[in-house]
UniProtKB/TrEMBL annotation:
It comes from the Eukaryota. Pathway: tRNA modification; 5-methoxycarbonylmethyl-2-thiouridine-tRNA biosynthesis. Its main location: cytoplasm. WD repeats lie at residues 176-217, 281-312, 507-538, 560-591. One of its GO terms (cellular component) is nucleus. Keywords: Cytoplasm, Nucleus, Repeat, tRNA processing, WD repeat. SUPFAM superfamilies: WD40 repeat-like. Pfam families: WD40 (PF00400). It comes from Bubo bubo (Eurasian eagle-owl). This is Elongator complex protein 2. Belongs to the WD repeat ELP2 family. One of its GO terms (biological process) is tRNA wobble uridine modification. InterPro entries: Elp2, WD40/YVTN_repeat-like_dom_sf, WD40_repeat_dom_sf, WD40_rpt. It is found in: Cytoplasm; Nucleus.
Amino acid sequence: MLDGSKILTGAYQAIFWKETSSLLVLFFVFMKNWLQIESPLVKSIPLKGHAEAVCAVDAVYQSDEPDLNLLIASAASDSTVRIWSRHGSEVYFYDITGIFIQFQKTLILPGHEDWIRGVEWAVCGEDLFLASCAQDCLIRIWKVCTKSKQLPETEDDSIRLKENVFTVKVTLESVLAGHENWVYAVHWQPSFSRDGSMQQPMRILSASMDKTVIIWEPDKESGVWLEQVRVGEVGGNTLGFFDCQFSPDGSMIIAHAFHGALHLWKQATVNKKEWTPEVVISGHFNSVEDVKWDPEGEFIISVGSDQTTRLFAPWKRKQETEVTWHEIARPQVHGYDMRCLAMMGRFQFVSGADEKVLRVFRAPKNFIENFSNITGIPVEKLCSHQSSDLPEGATVPALGLSNKAVFEGDMAVQPAEDEETFNTISNQYPEIYFQPMILTEPPPEDHLLQNTLWPEVQKLYGHGYEIFCVACNNSNTVIASACKASKKEHAAIILWSTTSWKKLQSLPFHNLTVTQLAFSPNDKFLLAVSRDRNWSLWRQQDSSESGPVFSCCAYTDKNTAVHSRIIWSCDWTPDSKYFITGSRDKKVIIWGQCDLSVTTEGNMLDSIKPCSTVLDAGDSVTAVGISRVLTPHGRYIVAVGLENGKIILYTWKQSGQEPSLADWSTCVEMDNSQSHALAVKRLCWRHHAGRAGHNDLNSSEWLQLASCGADHCVKIFNVNRFAL
């Protein structure tokens, strides 16, 4: 599964668990309230005092008997840190609901001048430390001393409760100023066990919107806290870091960027102050709208509402047999939400976004070389023509949306280390950010952002509204596209030539947005499905000088339609005889047969009818896909994606002249752990049998299915066709 990091959204802003032998407490931070959940009963304890929204919270037990002493630190947008205490013997009273625990506000720690974004406790021997960070770009470290003493009992005859005095003393240990923008997170290195006791390293990690993560430690001689290591992003249009964490042993740090990316750095074994980027998972941080395999089945490309196009490929680490999938290029970082794409050969694709323009991209030389290094496929097999003619890479000019090709002579010469450079405006803001790199493993995030773009080779103008779907035929000669529409004139399908890049034909028929287009594997037919609940089938006629000409040969209308809601998706069987449609009305239907011997429109219209019974998928159908490889028994393998995130695999084969329910066979229904959490947006089978990166033969038992969904995920499933 390829998954982007997720930011939990909602009313709460922080959450943590504290567990003891007698009480299980879960703290949520709401706008100004705390919620304590006891097991098995629930009671709410509001800790009132903050004047603005609470942003972060942390708690610590002060003794080996955690039921007795608990300190809670809360940070809010009123620029204060408040410490709350609960002393075990102070208030315990019983009622029918169980134990009710009283908290008291102990201290207010002023000092920050803006919203406080994070707090965290650390126990170091007898000392207690609290670190806080804020939007004033500063980190404050507080030293907390606690004292609890029991007052002597009086010897008179009066009845008295045992009294305790509980005090907290806080001193400001240090103020750390090193970040140049809001500091969003601060964390202590985790404690570890040594010689039977827990040791707390005096080391903290901070993440900021200035695109840096800093490790701070006190100087061994003076005790002054100093910056030891600074890592982060370079370039790109990101917003900096949202959170960070140490690994348990402190040898690695991970950071979560504001746009969903994860960054991982590892400490060098020799030079402890040297930290190097490591391979980490990555993915979309918004809904993934479309995914396609390359024709050879070696990688997938996906587009999403996070305005990016991402390329994932299999990678095998040295001396390891397991194949893992990683993002190895980001061909397009756009200014509009992406909607659709279609492959045009192995290293060329066309994409559509929430704009009126289609954009065509071609892989640069640097990508092909690095793809060869990472996957182990020789460059000669990847590139049929002379790679010397290709540009090195691409860059996006300032205030531009188009990826401009960068050739070898365009790149600025990097100055030598000892060469004096002048800090001019042109040096600070170079026109070309791309720098070619030789990669043998998946690249880190900052390299993905600016060094893996593909040059844009063509724009296609013609639609009046935002592009919604696009398809390319299997011979890579014709592109079909459609845009959002509420009228018939805007719902027309446009055909483009991939040789002249000119508009070949406009195909008006539907009244509302065409939701998906699909060419038949033999390129003789084009299928369109629409929001108007109908499908249309277009047949290729004799080609003109400019290119092939299509005419409508079959369709459904108000009288013949079977679907009663939007038809979201369609696909073809590998022999081009049947096609499938899936709709919001929960119906899946296979239509046919598409007979090339039928020449007249009327006969074709009569010959294409439902060949299957209506399959009730149980929920709105948002994606369908048919494998190009059949089962050993010659049955078609059909994948159906639902609005609730589930994916179901069926097989189908026509057994007689009339449709029969027995023709369908339910094979696999993905469980919740494998399904998407939100609607499935697209399903795409690998064109050949076998698994990418495994050197499987075409006769392999394995098939691969790629899916994408509104839950930000791209998933790849291995399917055993012999078991279906």
